Amino acid sequence: MIEALSEAERADALDGLPEWDHDEARDAITRTIVFADFIEAFGFMTQVALIAERMNHHPEWANVYNRVDILLTTHDAGGLSPRDIEMAQAIDAIVEE
């Protein structure tokens, strides 16, 4: 079973993820990404889906036209875990491409 991040680990991790917000109520991180259009947003989601399958760690997300809202938390750990940080970093790398 994967462990949730300690408060110190969470603070360090969030410092390295400036585009993400901490949702204290769910001990999760969130990010909204706006793309040029639906095709670009859907293409991004497809790339993330492939990584999520490989990692066996799936985001909670929603898509409305050119916007993708993402929430990452590890339900088994009861909050943020290293898996969420790794997924956020992978997502950020896709956005930066």
Give helix and strand order, one letter per element, not per position: HEEHEEH
Number of strands: 4
Radius of gyration: 13 Å
Low-confidence stretches: none
Instruction: Outline the biggest β-sheet.
Output: 4 strands, antiparallel
Average pLDDT number = 97
Shape: globular
Number of helices: 3
Helix-strand makeup class: alpha+beta
Beta-strand residue fraction: 15-25%
The side-by-side strand order for the widest beta sheet comes to 1-2-4-3
- What is the percent of helical residues? 40-55%
Report the end-to-end length measured between terminal Cα atoms.
33 Å
Give me a quick take on this structure:
By secondary structure, this protein is α+β, with helices and mostly antiparallel strands. The protein is 43% helix and 22% strand. It has a four-stranded antiparallel beta sheet with strand order 1-2-4-3, covered by helices on one side.
